[in-house]
């Protein structure tokens, strides 16, 4: 229920913000007034969100998924009393400002912290704490994407070294996912898949080499993306210098700029989820798609890496869709594509997610559930396997592992990084 409201409120605020600013565009003062108003509104939203995060709950910054993964092995504390309100209200403000952020990571952290809160209130024993944490995280993702199977698989695959495999534990996760998805459908008012797409013509087996090559390209892109995230996070840390108001003002300015961008070119702002169907249908030109891809990449670096509450899950899916659309349109331009380039955009979402997060099964099932289409399962598997293997060969670190280790390093827990790496080695991860 909480995650359903976390979906509805930013959507309503965004709609109200953009419609009000559009009305200003119709006035005599026109663009200047609308731009100033857009900057001011998003400046305030981002500034407040950043202030409360830095001041009261630094753990609520960013995605939140690494925090849950760390808590599953006692490397990070679960301070739900301060994380829940800051993540919920701070996330609503940041997501409503137009910044390039997603709500899926925060939904996972909110779900996991709610599970921890239930454990604390009911005095549940320690060994069941991890089950409740995992169940809450899975239900958060399932609710965010209306993808119950992917929510369950994400915990079993992405958190597989931390998850305590017992039949009762798997059952608890499954039950949590079912209830959260049903509650979300009841509150939001529909249970439709995220993307409403037509059926495409099938892909000939002779075209499978295209998906292999595309997967290799996406694997390289995933490694570059993860390293760019790490570099940009370090850059922000150096610029902030540990000062509260310095960080608040810088992030508020970034938020204000994206507020202005949201009325000029909405495709380069927000999570991108509302435009993915359009990119899959490749109704835009190759030049425009390439430009949006570059600007959205820069948007993720500027918005996510600053530490404001907001996820990278949906923005990374947007980048994958754009990468696939650009690749497909390029092949079409040179006359070497004999199927719809939108298929590569669909495959690109799962391949890019798998290359970055290193959760291939979740990547495949998530996109199949979101599109309500298992038609391209085999091409998707080819691209996903190629992408993950390429990322591994290039020594790329899984995104959430990389962020968790960075958090541990900044908190002065260098020994815990080695402990965590050793733990993952013993469980044959990476």
Automatic annotation (TrEMBL):
<feature type="transmembrane region" description="Helical">
    <location>
        <begin position="31"/>
        <end position="52"/>
    </location>
</feature>
<feature type="transmembrane region" description="Helical">
    <location>
        <begin position="244"/>
        <end position="264"/>
    </location>
</feature>
<feature type="transmembrane region" description="Helical">
    <location>
        <begin position="343"/>
        <end position="367"/>
    </location>
</feature>
<dbReference type="Pfam" id="PF00654">
    <property type="entry name" value="Voltage_CLC"/>
</dbReference>
<keyword id="KW-1133">Transmembrane helix</keyword>
<feature type="transmembrane region" description="Helical">
    <location>
        <begin position="168"/>
        <end position="188"/>
    </location>
</feature>
<feature type="transmembrane region" description="Helical">
    <location>
        <begin position="374"/>
        <end position="394"/>
    </location>
</feature>
<dbReference type="GO" id="GO:0005886">
    <property type="term" value="C:plasma membrane"/>
</dbReference>
<feature type="transmembrane region" description="Helical">
    <location>
        <begin position="208"/>
        <end position="232"/>
    </location>
</feature>
<protein>
    <submittedName>
        <fullName>Chloride channel protein, CIC family</fullName>
    </submittedName>
</protein>
<dbReference type="InterPro" id="IPR014743">
    <property type="entry name" value="Cl-channel_core"/>
</dbReference>
<dbReference type="InterPro" id="IPR001807">
    <property type="entry name" value="ClC"/>
</dbReference>
<keyword id="KW-0472">Membrane</keyword>
<feature type="transmembrane region" description="Helical">
    <location>
        <begin position="130"/>
        <end position="156"/>
    </location>
</feature>
<keyword id="KW-0868">Chloride</keyword>
<feature type="transmembrane region" description="Helical">
    <location>
        <begin position="84"/>
        <end position="102"/>
    </location>
</feature>
<keyword id="KW-0813">Transport</keyword>
<feature type="transmembrane region" description="Helical">
    <location>
        <begin position="317"/>
        <end position="337"/>
    </location>
</feature>
<feature type="transmembrane region" description="Helical">
    <location>
        <begin position="284"/>
        <end position="305"/>
    </location>
</feature>
<dbReference type="GO" id="GO:0005247">
    <property type="term" value="F:voltage-gated chloride channel activity"/>
</dbReference>
<keyword id="KW-0812">Transmembrane</keyword>
<keyword id="KW-0406">Ion transport</keyword>
């Amino acid at each position: 229920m909480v995650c359903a409201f976390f979906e509805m409120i930013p959507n309503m605020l965004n709609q109200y913000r953009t419609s009000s600013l559009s009305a200003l565009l119709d006035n005599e003062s026109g663009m200047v007034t609308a731009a100033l108003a857009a900057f001011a509104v998003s400046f305030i939203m981002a500034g407040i969100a950043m202030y409360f995060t830095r001041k009261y709950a630094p753990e609520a910054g960013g995605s939140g998924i690494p925090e849950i993964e760390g808590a599953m092995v006692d490397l990070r504390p679960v301070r739900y009393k301060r994380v829940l309100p800051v993540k919920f209200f701070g996330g609503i403000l940041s997501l409503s400002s137009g910044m390039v952020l997603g709500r899926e990571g925060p939904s996972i952290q909110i779900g996991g912290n709610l599970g921890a809160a239930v454990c604390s209130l009911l005095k549940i024993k320690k060994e069941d704490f991890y089950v409740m944490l995992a169940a809450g995280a899975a239900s958060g993702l399932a609710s965010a994407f209306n993808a119950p199977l992917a929510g369950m698989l994400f915990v079993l695959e992405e958190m597989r070294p931390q998850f305590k495999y017992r039949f009762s534990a798997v059952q608890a996760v499954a039950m949590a996912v079912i209830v959260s998805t049903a509650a979300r459908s009841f509150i939001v008012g529909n249970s439709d898949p995220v993307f409403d797409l037509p059926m495409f013509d099938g892909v000939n087996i002779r075209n499978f080499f295209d998906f292999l090559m595309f997967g290799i390209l996406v694997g390289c892109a995933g490694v570059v993306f993860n390293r760019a995230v790490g570099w940009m996070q370090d850059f922000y840390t150096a610029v902030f210098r540990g000062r509260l108001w310095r960080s608040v003002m810088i992030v508020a300015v970034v938020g204000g700029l994206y507020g202005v961008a949201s009325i000029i070119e909405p495709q380069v702002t927000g999570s991108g989820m509302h435009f993915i169907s359009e990119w899959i249908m490749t109704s835009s030109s190759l030049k425009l798609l390439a430009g949006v891809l570059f600007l959205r990449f820069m948007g993720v670096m500027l918005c996510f890496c600053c530490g404001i509450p907001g996820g990278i899950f949906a923005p990374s899916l947007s980048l994958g869709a754009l990468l696939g659309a650009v690749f497909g349109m390029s092949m079409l331009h040179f006359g070497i594509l004999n199927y719809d380039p939108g298929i590569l955009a669909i495959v690109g979402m799962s391949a890019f997610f798998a290359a970055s997060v290193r959760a291939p099964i979740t990547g495949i099932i998530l996109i199949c559930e979101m599109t309500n289409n298992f038609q391209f399962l085999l091409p998707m598997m080819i691209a996903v396997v190629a992408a993950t293997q390429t990322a591994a060969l290039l020594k790329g670190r899984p995104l959430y592992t990389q962020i968790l280790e960075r958090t541990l390093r900044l908190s002065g827990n260098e020994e815990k990084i080695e402990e965590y790496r050793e733990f993952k080695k013993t469980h044959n991860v990476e």
